[in-house]
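Hello,

Our lab assistant flagged a job as stuck in the queue for most of the afternoon. It eventually completed. Since we weren't sure the result was trustworthy after the delay, we are filing this so someone can double-check. Below is the sequence as submitted and the structure that was eventually returned. Let us know if re-running is recommended.
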Amino acid sequence: MEERRILFTTDATITFDEYVRYSNRICRFRNILSYILWIGITGAFCVWAVISGRYPHALMAAAVCISKVASSPAVKMAKLKKAFAEEDSVGNCYLVYDFYEDGFIMTCNMEPCELCHYWELDSIVETKTNFYFRYNGDNGCILIKDNCSPQLIHFLHTMKDDTKGPLYNEGMYAMLPGPAEYFGIPYEVIHWKESPEGIVDRYKKALQCASVEGYPVIFENDEKTMAVLEALEEEMDRESLLAWEPSEEMPLPDGKKLLEEWYRDRHEGQEVWEHPQEERSVQGKGSPQDTFIATELCFHTFDNDDLIMLKFPVDAPWKVLAYFPLYGWGDHEEVAELMAVGKYWYEKYGAVPAVFGCNILEFWAEDLRISEEDAWRLAKEQTAFHDNALEICTKSGTVGELADDLQKTRTWFFMWEPFA
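-- returned structure --
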């Protein structure tokens, strides 16, 4: 029998305050209905008594109703304290929740319960601080949002909103987003309504935690990109590529020399460091670019196209390029060359691969501070890396404009022709 795979885990210690919050939210309708019935019935009786001239009866009924309503919170709190203290209560229990594709298992004080299928729940109720899983009337489970990962929160949001999903249909399974399932690594979902500035902020926070959580890469979560990856997988040994590490037996090329060679081939023997006097004028007049071009230009074209921020378990950010053979069409040598350039740019400029799409690659250079001379060289290296760099990234089509922009911007954007 195949071993059940845990998708997410969270824990909670249920204090009395949490217990009260749960009761107030889950029993809210019943409590309000109780007040309405008391006030409605008493009000009707008072009206009848006044019409009948039985004023003492009306006053007595009104007094009883006011007393009942006023004392209800204290009475309710006493009942909750008694229930919380009972032996079989969740009071001060330590709970662990393991989520699977078809349901979850709650472990209470190290004693696991049986699997509860998602479709067995009556509903999932969300508040600002909690998720409540309801079943059998007022019974249920308490999840504390502060203890849940962003991935788990998105997972629960998706399940609540998907009427064709496992919460509403017996036998259905909850699935991870395509790229996360494909690579089998941690991820965060970036909603398509997230602002470009918000995306950058999330990326920077993830980058600060890269040594622990993995290097973040924002990935285009659409069917076309996944189809390209799957097609490339058929043409290559994907497992070997993902496991590949630079070694003496298979060293990486020199990224700097590769770029110089590519530039000579495309410019009739001219060297990267040669800048003819007529080209020296800096023509760029653009404003600094501090957000990802891909998220503004390409990924927000269609509503509801969420992005995925994958977190790769590598010890250097340029190694994530081994996971995306989209630019070498699965050829091992070309992917190695891509990684070599990424390694060189990381070591010299601190640039890291940050955004991938079906035909898009964008680097992030957080602390890039370069002279005009270095900016010219880098601009020419980028034209060697991709011959459409000037056409895509400048208005004038000149190296001078690109060099000027590179002194201001944090993002390096490359876009190839779409894959067929």
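-- support follow-up --
The delay was a queue issue, not a problem with the job. The result is valid. The chain has two domains: 24-85, 183-415. The chain has a mean pLDDT of 79.
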